[in-house]
Amino acid sequence: MEIHVSATKQETGRVAAMKAKEILSKTLASKKKARFVAATGASQFEFLDFLCKFKGIDWARTEMFHLDEYIGLPANHPASFRKYLMERLVSRVHPGNVNFIKGDARDPEAERKRISRLISNEEVDVAFVGIGENGHLAFNDPPADFETEEPYIILNLDERCRKQQVGEGWFHSVEEVPQQAISMSIKQIMKADHVVCTCPDKRKAEAVRDCLSVDVPVTPMHPSSILKQHDRAYIFLDKYSASTLRR
Asked: 18: alpha, beta or left, given left = phi > 0 and alpha = psi -120 to 50?
């Protein structure tokens, strides 16, 4: 794991996007296709904007997978992660193949199995992720399941996670936030050849300290601590999210 700290949120997003471009470009220079996982949320705004603006990525030879999605939320809902990714990534760079999680599928378990089969076909080259205020990785809230081999799982969202969604402005109240989601599992995220984690903002400082400090053990109670075990995980922080990190 490598940690990079920038002065501003904007610079954090730019440097993280440069790393993502480097990984995608090198992959496409040696393979016919690059497979990547895209995250959502306020932490990804600047990162995705810079990534879409950078030239030199043959997006037509990429395949995108969706990190997580609320169960029961239609794709046109303002908080839908499909809507988010369509507006901020897919409609701008047009990946060759896009695999969304259909959160409003009539049978969530069948949808979980469908997306799991698709991602299992080939290696994932890079996963773009963030860290939640409660330390979650994707929607794997504490205590996270570090053992399941299923690529995607159905999860119950804890209260702190749901409050974060309200705090970021996606919902008006906690009651509006769905209680379940289909999420990529911890082991599936860790299978990615590279991980680019973008995590700015002061509100993430506690989670960054608890998950990434050198003297903190890897534990399901701090799900993102698992990134310390990935040899090619690149963590991009700003001075605020890194303000209490023990290094």
From this structure: alpha
The residues facing 154 across adjacent strands are 182
Q: Sign of the C-alpha dihedral, residues 93, 99, 101, 102?
A: positive
Q: pLDDT of 152-177, one tens digit each? A: 999 999 888 888 888 888 888 999 88
Provide the terminal-to-terminal Cα distance of the chain, rounded to the nearest Å: 13
In contact, 33 and 132? CB cutoff 8 Å: no
174: domain CATH number is: 3.40.50.1360
Domain range for 138 is 2-238
Max CA distance (Å), the chain: 48
pLDDT digits (tens, 9 = 90+) for 55-86: 999 999 999 999 999 999 999 999 999 999 99
Model-level pTM?
0.95
Secondary element (H or E) of residue 69: strand 68-70
